[in-house]
Amino acid sequence: MTDTTAGAATPAAEDTFMGHPRGLVTLFFTEMWERFSFYGMRALLVIYLTQHFLFSDDKAQGLYGAYAALVYLIPVIGGVIADRFLGSRKAVTIGAVLLVLGHFGMAFEGRGSVQELTYNGGVYDVVADGRGDDRQLNLITGDAEFPVTFSAEGMSVTGAGDRLPAFIPTADYELSVRPDVLEVGGISVPYEQILYLSLAFIIIGVGFLKANISTTVGALYPQGDPRRDGGFTIFYMGINLGAFLATLACGYLGQTYGWKYGFGLAGVGMLFGLIQYLMGQKHLMGKAEPPKPISATFEGLFWILGLLAVIPAWFLVQQSQFMVDPLSSLFGLSGLPAALQEAANMFSLFQVVVLALFLSMFAYVWFAFTGTERSKMFAALVMIVFSVVFWTLFEQAGSSLSLFAERNTDLTVVPGVTMTAAQTQSFNAGFIVLLALPFSAMWIWLAKRKMEPSTPVKFALGLIQVGLGFFVLVFGAQFAGDDFKVPLIFLAVLYLLHTTGELFLSPVGLSMITKLSAARVVGLMMGVWFLSSSLAHIMAAIVARWTSSETVAGQVVDPGAQLDTYVTTFQQVGIWGIAAGVLLLLISPFLKKWMGDVR
Q: pLDDT at residue 413 above 70?
């Protein structure tokens, strides 16, 4: 939606709060609660998948990547629907309702999947008792249970007497997972399907809400209104305040008292957001209405379409192999020429499709534009490619870094005070809240002195910082104790560097697209930006899977080997980030020249 109010002056009859349109308060709290629900669930998700549903690391991180990719892809469609038919207000309402349904659906966890162990013709359940560092595995044998520990060599059993050997080699037993099911009218529904359906509701809900609420913020201000940047800064703080509070509260409840409490609180947060949005719509001053009046029947059609869209999302989110697995394993390709075989081993179907779209976009710009329009758009496309590298590394937060915090981090804040692994994801949002305004002031101070870095240089410095963050953990690994756990301070410093890197790159990304794109294809380029974010989450999932480890009942078999795997992977991606940043620094003079008068 575009602004239609002319002039920069504040209308005399405008209802304001602290100098800004009163509608900004409505949108601030709607977005705060939506982000509360989203990040509260995100903080728990991968740990939940591995410890409750007993997904392998590969499966859990692949599912998370597919889910996150769809969350960033669907808003492109939601934005088009709002612009052409519904308007932002109605689209956000539909999205909020679907999000409430999805988040409350996540609270239906069941008892969890059970690890089964088959040995010498007998089948035994291996169950986890306790949480966090107090988690103990027990082997159930009919009327008794015995503590067990697993290593790469096998299983040790304590106190079983003559029932079982004290040590059983790995080669002598087999492990499998028995899913928990919900009985409904004589039909058995795996709780895993409730999980997938809930994620599908969240995906479509975010699709309706994410882009459109930001559009409404811009529409509250007339063209040229000097309050606009301040309004977006306030709105941005709402996003991170919600994320910060959610990761602390939901992360604590979910891992301390039960997953359903963490996910349930996320649902309550989204419900609060929906209620206050419905109550505060009158303050939006008609800026989020449909482009032309629509009937209740026509609006109802989109409610139905939104519900129907959950079905393909439900299918896609549980078929993550099409988005993450390499073509060779997906289709059994063999006998190809060496170069093609190598590509088939590296790229997934989703990656191939997106890469083809990127190449098509470069070709389209080359043939459809000339002069400065062409050079500006080439500059934008090149920086979009580099942004994929940044977000691939940055988005390890929800997957490999989440499991690193759970498995190989000493979560002691100060003696006697600990935090949960999910709560460590509050570092990023907390640092944003502390640093966003100082960074904004820094750019203004540098600009006045004609010292502000160009957009390509900011991107490059952001990449270098995200790469350096991983080297902090590589360095910190040498301080791990006998339990193979790295002190918490190193993870905190990683998130500090990732946050400063984000502040160099993220705030200027969307602005760059609007400034460098030809007017007639701004929407198309914005779609490419969201597509690149979606691709980055798939790449992030592939990288995260490199850190996978063998687990039993959600517990790592060999913590020492797991730490070594993290160090190797983090060192590799750290090199990528720094190398990409240095390369971008080297070509930044050329990009700056292509950008013309755009900073």
A: yes
Nearest to 66 by CA among 196, 192, 209: 196
Question: Which of the four CATH numbers 2.30.140.10, 1.20.1250.20, 1.10.10.10, 3.30.360.10 does domain 1-110+190-319 have?
Answer: 1.20.1250.20
For the chain, what is the radius of gyration of the CA atoms? 25
For residue 464, give the 3-state DSSP assignment: helix
Q: Which residues contact 298 (CB under 8 A, 6 or more apart)?
A: 85
Strand partners, 174: 118
- Give the angle 91-306-520 at the CA atoms, nearest 5°: 55
Indicate the CATH number of 371-599 among 3.30.565.10, 3.20.20.70, 3.40.1360.10, 1.20.1250.20: 1.20.1250.20
What value does the mean pLDDT take over residues 122-135? 84
The sign one gets for the Cα dihedral 9, 19, 25, 437 is: positive
Among 562, 547, 393, which residue's Cα sits nearest to residue 477?
Answer: 562
Task: Determine the Cα angle at 49 with ends 47 and 51, to 5°.
Answer: 65
- d(C-alpha 411, C-alpha 399), whole Å: 17
Q: In 3D, which of 380, 447, 408 has the Cα closest to residue 565? A: 408
Matching residue, tokens 């500059």: 379
Q: Which of 34, 61, 397 is nearest to 246 (CA)?
A: 34
Taking each helix axis as running N to C, give the angle between helix 191-219 and helix 228-256, from 0 to 180 degrees, rounded to the nearest 10: 160
pLDDT of residue 13: 56
Q: What is the mean pLDDT of residues 330-335?
A: 70
**Cα 369 to Cα 364: distance, rounded to the nearest angstrom:** 8
Helices 559-594, 400-408: crossing angle, 10 deg rounding: 150
Please report, as a single letter, which amino acid is at residue 391.
W
The residue written with tokens 């349109």 in the block is 21
Q: Rounded to 5 degrees, what are φ and ψ at 110?
A: 70, -165
Residue 216 predicted with pLDDT over 90: no
pTM over 0.85: yes
Is residue 515 helix, strand or coil?
A: helix
525-550 residue pLDDT tens: 877 888 888 899 999 999 999 999 99
DSSP structural state of residue 17: E
Per-residue pLDDT averaged across 369-385, rounded?
92
Instruction: Say how far apart CA 207 and CA 244 lie, in whole Å.
Output: 22
Q: For the chain, where do the domains classified as CATH 1.20.1250.20 start and end?
A: 1-110+190-319, 371-599
Cα torsion at 346, 349, 353, 355 (round to 10°)?
-10
Query: What 3-state class would DSSP assign to 57?
Result: helix
Packing angle, helices 191-219 and 296-317, rounded to 10: 130
DSSP result, 211-222 = HHHHHHHHHTS-
Count Cβ atoms below 10 Å from residue 534 Cβ, excluding itself.
25
